[in-house]
């Protein structure tokens, strides 16, 4: 009994020290230093949406460090406690096991799980070249596993944007009009981007693209392309000789001009394969993290340009 009471006291002490003015703020339980709503996103595209929808009223942090590969993120006890203290947690269940565990453990009051909003597809349904003989340590390619990468299809983003706006409004009702307006503006940008992809990929000499990271199933599904994946996500995992031979056959049969790789994991396999086949290697970014001035839209436009070159689109 003593220890329970002591723990409660320790938990209360920092709150008692806060300035009284905080009691009147929009989000009384805010973990941010100011009176903004503290949003904790699990990785970049979700963070980007929360920032755009929340605007000045929110402070958004990400559990995945900038520029880091989010698939195998691990959380420190301090990060788990940030999940507990956030006013709103935005994540994608089934994508990052450590985040799923932290959410289950802390049971935050306000959560947006993108998997509740998006009708996620399995790899087989996406026109993805599946290769069940290869074991992927990151849960990507197990038979029938859901593909997490919905954000690479811009037409899927508005449903998620609206869910974030609705939950922010539940946390901070005074900001509801702002959140709705920001969501509408952001959704217009996603709709524009979707139209640019539709137009830009409508007429191409090839519709098959080869990529090291099989992240582009939703993109392929939306724009009637065919993704051929070389290996799983683990930068240290070498694809089997059998898989490499199969990809080489597809490259020759379909006249593939480019092997795509991503910046957050080693391009070694993709570069070696491209060199062996005498074709190009180029970046196709799964938008799982950003560096420098890049953001979701700038990377998506870079990806479209890269696909148009590789597929000889007119
Ligand atoms: Zn991925």
From TrEMBL:
Any one biological process term the GO annotation gives: metal ion transport
Superkingdom in the source lineage: Bacteria
Keywords for the protein's UniProt record, in alphabetical order: Signal, Transport
Family matches, as Pfam families: ZnuA (PF01297)
GO molecular function: metal ion binding
Claim: Transport is one of the keywords in the record: yes
Signal peptide as annotated in the record: 1-31
Gene3D superfamilies: Nitrogenase molybdenum iron protein domain
Record-stated family: Belongs to the bacterial solute-binding protein 9 family.
Protein's UniProt name: Zinc ABC transporter substrate-binding protein
Organismal lineage: Bacteria, Bacillati, Actinomycetota, Actinomycetes, Micrococcales
């Amino acid at each position: 009994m003593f220890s329970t009471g002591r723990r409660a006291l320790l938990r209360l002490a920092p709150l008692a020290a806060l300035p009284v003015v905080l009691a009147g703020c929009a989000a009384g339980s805010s973990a941010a230093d100011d009176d903004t709503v503290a949003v904790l996103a699990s990785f970049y595209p979700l963070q980007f949406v929360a920032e755009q929808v929340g605007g000045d009223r929110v402070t958004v942090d990400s559990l995945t460090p900038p520029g880091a590969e989010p698939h195998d993120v691990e959380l420190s006890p301090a990060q788990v406690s940030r999940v507990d203290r956030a006013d709103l947690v935005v994540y994608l269940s089934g994508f990052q096991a450590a985040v799923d565990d932290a959410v289950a453990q802390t049971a935050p009051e306000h959560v947006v799980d993108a998997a509740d909003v998006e009708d996620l597809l399995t790899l087989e349904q996406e026109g993805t070249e599946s290769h069940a003989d290869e074991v992927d340590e990151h849960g990507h390619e197990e038979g029938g596993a859901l593909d997490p990468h919905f954000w690479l299809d811009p037409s899927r983003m508005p449903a998620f944007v609206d869910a974030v706006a609705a939950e922010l409004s539940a946390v901070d009702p005074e900001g509801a009009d702002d959140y709705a307006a920001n969501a509408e503006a952001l959704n217009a940008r996603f709709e524009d981007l979707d139209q640019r992809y539709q137009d830009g990929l409508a007429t191409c000499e090839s519709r098959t693209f080869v990529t090291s990271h099989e992240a582009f199933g939703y993109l392929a599904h939306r724009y009637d392309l065919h993704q051929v994946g070389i290996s799983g996500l683990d930068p240290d995992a070498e694809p089997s000789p059998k898989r490499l031979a199969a990809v080489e056959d597809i490259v020759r049969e379909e006249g593939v001009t480019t092997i795509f790789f991503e910046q957050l994991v080693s391009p070694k396999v993709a570069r070696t394969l491209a060199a062996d086949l005498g074709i190009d290697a180029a970046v196709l970014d799964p938008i799982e993290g950003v560096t420098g001035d890049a953001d979701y839209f700038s990377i998506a436009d870079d990806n479209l340009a890269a696909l148009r070159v590789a597929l000889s689109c007119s």
